[in-house]
Amino acid sequence: MQNKLSKTELNDIIQWDVKTWSKVLPFWEKHFSIKPGMKVLAIGEREGGLSMWFAKKGCSVTCTDYNDFPDTTKDLHKDYKVAQLINYELNVDATDLSRFDSNSYDIVVFKSVIGVLSEKDRQQTAIKEMHRVLKKDGALLFAENLKGTKLHSYLRKKFVRWDSYWRYLDLKKDKDLFDSFTKKEFKAIGFSSNFGRSEGQKSFLSKMDSGLVWMTPKTWRYVLFGVLIK
Length: 230
Description:
Elements: H1 7-14, H2 18-21, H3 24-31, E1 39-43, H4 49-56, E2 60-64, H5 71-79, E3 86-89, E4 105-111, H6 120-133, E5 134-145, H7 150-159, E6 183-189, H8 199-212, E7 223-229
Parallel strand pairs: 1-2, 1-4, 2-3, 4-5
Antiparallel strand pairs: 5-7, 6-7
């Protein structure tokens, strides 16, 4: 399991809605053994937080994004003294990972990425590409936005500027996206923290969620964690 991370480290790894989304780290470690020397392909890593976390564990990380990285990404990796374990690839489309060899990575990881693909068919293509580049017994580790309730949908339309093109996963209808994997572990979390408009509000509401989890149906939750073994 992971060593205790400081609040600053968690903020640098997760970046937003930290209290809720950071719970993915122990979930991943519970269901897959992350070892030094493993090769990691990190998809959609604009701020580079997950790349930093894996590099701190001694992994060799390919940090990718569709757009240019801000200067702060490489600065973060230098600050944590892991830059030597990370290389960068730009203009990486999750639906076309052809520049990466098949069966070449121990881990593929992403957080809040495939929603931007807008269509289920494109999400399916991306997951197939991630499956292709994984070694046998390698793992796809992810955290992605769920559809949640009608209230979540209403507030996203009102406050989230990219809501018009984002495709949120449906807990019941979209698990077929992952059928190509031999072993699958999922966990759906979060309800009220998505309603917060500031990081402080989200953190407070996330504490409430911890006490309410037993009385909220999984279909009400807005984050899906996954560990998928090839």
